C-alpha cells in the first residue's frame, strides 16, 4: 500500500493540530465527541488507473473505540453453483442477493468482538460476518449460508472486500488516522465512509462522509459507450480485433 505523499502528510498533520486546538478551545457543551474527514472526497479513475489510497483522519473528545466502515454502492449479485456431470461442469443452482455493497472495508482500534456485542455489530453491519447478505432463492443443493460464504469469497478474491479488520492508529489519545486502499477494479459510484465512536459496547457518536469514485476523460467515454451501446461496442471491438490481426499478418509476411 502506498504511503501518502509528503505534502499530503504535512496537510493532514496541520489539519489534525488545528482540529485538536479547536476542540480544546470550544466550550465543553459544544464539543463534538467525534469529528473525521477524508484527504480527498473524489477518486478520479483515468486511463492507466492502478488503484489509490485515501486517508481518513479525525479526533475524539471522549474515551472509546473507533470503527470505520467503507461501503460501496449496493448492487444485486447472483452466485451460481456448478456441479460436475458427465465430466462437464454445468450450472445447477443459483442464489440472488439484493443490496450487496459492491465494496466493503472495515477498520477498528481493537478486534470487533472486544468492542461491542454481536447484536450491536449486526445492527450497524460492522464486519463482513455481520453484513446483511441474505439470498432470496432456495436451492435444495446448497444452503443460504453456503451461498453467502461463496459470495464473500468471490468479493475477497477480487479485493473488493477486506479479509481482515484493518488497524486504526492513534496519535496521542485523541487523534486517529487510517489509510484505505481502493484497487484498480474499484466500482464507480458514491461510497459512504462511516465512522463510529463506541464506548461500553454502545455507539455514542457516528459520522458519515460521502466519497465519489468516478471515471473521467477518455476512459469514462469508452465506459459509458460500452454500457449504453453494448451491441455497437461489441461489433466495433470485433472489427478492431479482426483488423489488428489482419495488419499483423500482413506485416509478418512482408518481414
Short description:
The protein has 255 residues and is α+β, with helices and mostly antiparallel strands. It contains six helices and twelve strands. It has two domains: 6-216, Immunoglobulin-like (Sandwich), CATH 2.60.40; 217-255.
Task: Give a verbal description of the structure.
32% of the residues lie in helices and 37% in strands. The chain is built from six helices and twelve strands. The protein has a six-stranded mixed beta sheet. A four-stranded antiparallel beta sheet has the order 1-3-10-9, covered by helices on one side. A two-stranded antiparallel ribbon has the order 5-6. The protein starts with 5 loop residues before the first helix and ends with a helix.
Outline the secondary-structure elements:
Layout: H1 6-25, E1 34-38, E2 42-45, E3 52-60, E4 65-71, E5 74-85, E6 88-101, E7 104-108, H2 112-115, H3 118-124, H4 144-157, E8 166-167, E9 169-171, E10 175-182, E11 189-199, E12 202-215, H5 218-228, H6 230-254
Parallel strand pairs: 2-12, 7-8
Antiparallel strand pairs: 1-3, 3-10, 4-7, 4-11, 5-6, 9-10, 11-12
Helix pairs in contact: 5-6
List keywords for this structure.
flat, Immunoglobulin-like, 255 residues, 2 domains, alpha+beta, four-stranded antiparallel β-sheet
Instruction: Give the N-terminus to C-terminus distance in angstroms.
Output: 45 Å
Helix/strand class: alpha+beta
The CATH topology assignment of the largest domain is Immunoglobulin-like
Q: Treating each run of at least 4 consecutive H or I residues as one helix, how many helices?
A: 6
The main sheet comes to: 6 strands, mixed
